[in-house]
Amino acid sequence: MNSAYAEKEREFVAGLAEDTGRDLAQWMTAIADSGHTERNDIIDWLRHQGFQFAWASWLERIHHNGGRLIYADDTRSDPRAPNRPRRPADIDEEPPARMRPLIKASQSAKPQTSGDIQTLLTEAKGLRPLAEHILREVGRAVPATEFAATGALVTMSAPKPFAALHPGPKKLRLFANFGLAGSKRSLPAEAVNKNAPPFAEMLVLDDVRSIDEDFRRLIRAAAAR
Predict the structure, then answer these.
(1) Three-class secondary structure assignment of 125-137
(2) Contact 67, 25 (CB under 8 A)
(3) Which of 2, 31, 164, 181 is a plausible cystine mate for 153, CB 3.0–4.6 Å?
């Protein structure tokens, strides 16, 4: 079983850089720089960076293990290698699957690739994991959504355009027409790089806790208009 867990853990860690913009070493440094030392505080901080609980929990376990993988570098099967201590909670617990962003290539006349979108999301810098999380949640709320990089925006269509994300280093702006559904939460849309906004309203997002059921309700409302 450990060999299967080791392979799953390797896949999870290998995909960190592509999926979040930071590799394992960079996330270990980021956790250390956050100033948090308690397990729950680290997990909560990682969730604010856009990680789901399982991923945040596993990164915390690796950090607690001195930055070493739990299973993928496990040498206990080699009698020549010394055992190293591991806390009981790490034993026989399955690593999470790799994060795979729900981003599809556009089917428009000028197709875009997921790589174009990933390049655009680098503009979000430290908010990039949150931007990735937003796109995943939009894809879950409206499974038919297609994503494309259009100028400075990640546009979302199902099949008509219904929303657009502008990734910035200090805030993420999600533009859409929410109608009455957004009356308590949306703001008048701002210009994007001095250009007219793509939709009349927007959500300003900088906290993973705002990506909740109400957010998904607003996305469904925008897609249905």
Answers:
(1) HHHHHHHHHHHHH
(2) yes
(3) 164
Task: Tell whether omega for the bond before 88 is within 30 degrees of 0, i.e. cis.
Answer: no
Burial of 128 (C-beta count, 10 Å sphere; 0-12/13-18/19+)? buried
Contact of 178 with 221, CB cutoff 8 Å: yes
Q: Give the pLDDT score at 92.
A: 56
Sheet order of strands, 172-176 included: 146-150, 153-157, 161-167, 172-176, 201-205, 187-188
Write the single-letter amino acid at 152.
A
Q: Would you say the pTM of this structure is higher than 0.85?
A: no
Residues 176 and 157: their CA atoms lie apart, in Å, by 11
Q: What is the 3-state composition of the chain as percent helix, strand, coil, each rounded to the nearest 5?
A: 45, 15, 40
Radius of gyration of the chain (CA): 20
The pLDDT of residue 20: 77
* Rounded Cα gap, residues 210 and 97, in angstroms: 24
pLDDT at 224: 92
Among 61, 66, 69, which Cα is nearest to 42's? 61
Sign of CA dihedral 37, 40, 216, 98: positive
Query: Closest by alpha carbon to 177, among 162, 195, 193, 157?
Result: 162
